[in-house]
Structure formats: C-alpha cells, structure tokens
Amino acid sequence: MSSFSPRRAAAFAAAFGIALSGCAVGPDFKKPEAPKTDAYLPDQPPSDFVAAGIPGGEAQTIVRNMDIPGQWWQVFQSRPLNSLIAESLAANPDIQAASAALRVAQANARAQRASLFPTLGINGGASQNQTPDSLQSPTADGAQNYSLFTAGVTVSYTVDAFGGIRRQAESLDAVAEQQCFELEATYLTLASNVVTAAITEASLRAQIDAVQRIIAAQRDTLGILQQQSGLGAIPGGDVATQQAALAQTEATLPPLQKALAQQRNLLATLAGKLPSQALAERFTLDELVLPHELPLSLPSKLVEQRPDVRAAEANIHAASALVGVAVANQLPQLTLNAGVGSQALALGSLFGPGLIATTIGINVLQTVIDGGALAAKKKAAYAALDQADAQYRSTVLLAFRNVADTLRALEYDALALKATVTAERAAATSLDIARRRLALGDTTYVFVLNAELLYQQALLARVQAQTNRYTDTAALFQALGGGWWNRDAVASDADRLRCRPPTPPAKTVTSQR
Predict the structure, then answer these.
(1) In the chain, what are the domains?
(2) How far apart are CA 431 and CA 213, in angstroms?
(3) Distances from the Cα of 140 to the Cαs of 128, 146, 147, 466, in angstroms?
(4) Please, are residues 445 and 31 in contact by the beta-carbon 8 Å criterion?
C-alpha cells in the first residue's frame, strides 16, 4: 500500500475545498417585501389643489406614477437656485465626507475579496557569519567565516470550505452599497436644504417688504392725526397712541432683518463657503415658479426610490451575511501551505543542485473550548440582524409618513393661501376706507388703528401661506426620493434603481496617495 504523501494530502484538501466551494453557511439574503398597500392615506386625497389668484398660488395637480427628474429643483425655474445647488453639490464638505466614506467601504470590500485567492510571498536574506573556534563550522569546507544567502517562495491558501470568507466579502459589499445610498441621501438632503433655505430667504424678504409697507401706511396715518391734532379736531392722546403703534411695528423689522442675514450665512455654508464670502444669488418669491404638475410615486415604488430605505435594506444584507460569518467561524478552518526555498554560501549558487528545500502542508484548526465566545458571537450576529430588520421597518414607516404629511400639507396649505389672500384684500380695502374717512373726519382713530392691525396680520399671514406652497412642493420631491435614478443615462430599465455613485467632487484638501 502506498503512503499518504504531502502532495496527495494537498490534492485531497484542494479537492475538498472545491467540492464545498458552493456551500456558504448562514441565511441567504432576501429582499424585504414592499408594504402591501396602494395608498398613503386612509382616504383618497384630492388630486387638484385650489388656486389663490396670485403668483405662487397657482393650482396644482397630482399626477400619479409620474417620474421625477434627476435635478428636480429645476421645476421652480430659478437660475440662481440652479446655480447655487450646483455649486453646493460640488463644494459642500458633507458631500465630500460621504464620498470618502463610500471609497473606504469599496476599498475594504475589494480587500476582503482578495482573501478568496492564494497569497504569494517572496523572501530573501543575506548575512555574514563567524563561528567560534571552539565550535565546529557548519560549512563543508570548515570555514569559520562565511556568508549565507537565503531565498524562497511561499504560497498560502485558506480554503473557504463553509463560505465564511465569501460571507464576509458579501457583508462588505453590502456596506459599500449602503454607503452609496448614504451618499445619495446626502445629495438629496443638501439639495433640499438649499431649496428650503432659498425659499425662506425669499419669504423673509417678502415679510420685510410687507412690514415696510405697513410702516409707511402708519406714518401716513400719523401725519393725518398730527394735522388734525394741530387743528384741535382730535386729542393729543390719539397721536401718542399712533406713535406707539408705529414704534411697535418698527420693532418687528430688525428681527426679520437679522433672520435674513442669518439665512444668507446658512446658504453660504451650504455652498461650502465662509459666511464672509458674499453670495451673488438672491431670492424673492416673485422669481420662483410653482410647478403645475406634481408627481406621486406608487407606494410599491417608494421603497425602491428612497435612498434612506435602500441604505437600510443594504444594512439588513450586511447583517445577514455576518450571521454566515459567525456560523462559519464555529466550523473547521483549513489552510494549505507550500514553499520553495534555498540556502547557499554564494549568491550565484542559490537554487543549485542539492540546495533546494520544499514544504507542502495542511493546517486544520477547530476550536473546541473557548468559553462560549463563538456561540455568543453567533447570537450577537442574529440579534444584529433583528435590529437591522427593525430599523428598516422604522425607516419605511417614516418614508410613508413623510409622503402622507406632505400630501396633507399641499391640500390644506393651498386652502389656507386662498383664504389669506381673500383676507388680505378685504383688510387692505378696509384700511383704505378707514384712512379716507379719517382724513374727512368721518370716523374715530380707534377704527383706523384696528384696520391697520388687521391688515398687518393678514399681509404677513399671506406671505407665510405663500411660502408654505413652495416648501410643500420641495418637501414632496424630497419625500419621494429626489429622482436620483434619472440623474445619469442608464443602459437598461433594470439598472435604473441600482445605486450608481455620483461623480466624486473635486478634491480641495487632501491629495491622492
């Protein structure tokens, strides 16, 4: 009977590894099912939102299953807004940080996949040696002083018999996909923040203009009262009361101006600039266009479109693969080793006849007693999978709530704007009549003061309601995922919802190493 040689042992181990190469312990990832619903609200919301008869108060219509453009903010038809968002996406450090995190995850995944292949190492050395006279020289010629040169090649291969290495690579690939969608979410959040900040700036400018008009009207009223007081037609107390009302209105102007200045600082920061760097873009409500048609994706598509939901899904995938890693770690670990080496007294004699040594080996490691560490790690992996699943379901609920909240806001804010426009027009008419009657001496000052306060409240309420229409529109696009899948041309419909990292922003701080 022939002996069981190392070559045969290596061949047997290799065949054993190949036979089990298709086996990977642990659960296979299954994509979570979309919520079984065809609606975002318990009742059917209206598809048409009422018009208010002013710019920024146009009628809007919900178009179901309408696709979302990649650069959705262009629906507002504002060149300054388009320019500022493009600048922000290129220079904002949050985008750069998310892009770097994606590159880290991708590099880690590539490093782990390399573990599926053999490792080849080359070693070499040279030394000058002297043997004491009291000891026998190890060389054949008996020289006490000699040079020794060594060289060798080693090959090591860990057989992935139970799929632990592949599960680890699968987990890191899923982490890279999660970071890709985190980057998409950062893009969406930044664009939405810029749009919201621009709308807020426009609203503050409108409010400042409204307060200034109210101040002008109150000053005119004060002039009338002072003239009548000089003629003795009214008591001086009415003049003092109007002066107090004017001062109160003037006191509301600095807080609005402060908020506007801070809003400009926010926009500069979002664009990756210091607050001391003035922005060229300025925003007013009159320059923003309210889109007539609004998209509404099917509920079954929302989980495919929302970057945060897709990131949570990838997190489940990563956790599922780590369960397989924990199970594989409890099973035998098999490693194949082979090496070829040589030692010689002269460099030119390396790998000469009789100077070559070879090794072929198999290492098998099976943990027997570890105090329950591997079992506890497997339990932790399953618990992490349960956690990832719960986090995914929470993210889905939040996504559906965002859409539902926005649909309600669109519905009721449209009604609110129509009502505030009517109230503003009525208050303006009432104030005009009161001031003319006051000039004719046909009414009391109290009647005029009440009309002024009513007009001030109605005017500011209209501006805020008008602002809400714009912010609701932006919130809907954000809630539906932002259209990242339409940002670049794709080869087929099957690739539309696959995460494709945006073009990395230009490096401004670090250099490529």
Answers:
(1) 40-127+145-487 (1.20.1600.10)
(2) 13
(3) 16, 11, 13, 99
(4) no
Q: pTM of the predicted model, to two decimals? A: 0.86
214 residue type, one letter: I
Give CA–CA dist 57/51, Å, rounded. 5
Measured distance CA(127)–CA(146) in Å, rounded: 9
What is the Cα–Cα distance from 273 to 265, expressed in whole angstroms?
A: 9
φ/ψ of residue 119, rounded to 5 = -105, 125
Yes or no: say if 298 and 38 are a contact pair by the CB < 8 Å rule.
yes
- The torsion defined by the Cα of 219, 220, 226 and 232, in degrees rounded to 10, comes to -150
Q: What is the DSSP letter of 409?
A: H
From the first residue on, what is the mean pLDDT of each consecutive set of 10 residues in the chain (513 residues)? 44 49 81 91 88 91 93 96 95 94 95 92 90 80 84 91 92 96 96 97 95 88 78 71 88 95 96 92 94 94 95 97 94 91 84 84 90 94 96 97 96 96 93 82 75 89 95 97 84 72 53 39
Nearest Cα to 159, choosing from 415, 345, 337, 294? 337
Supply 62's token pair.
């919900």
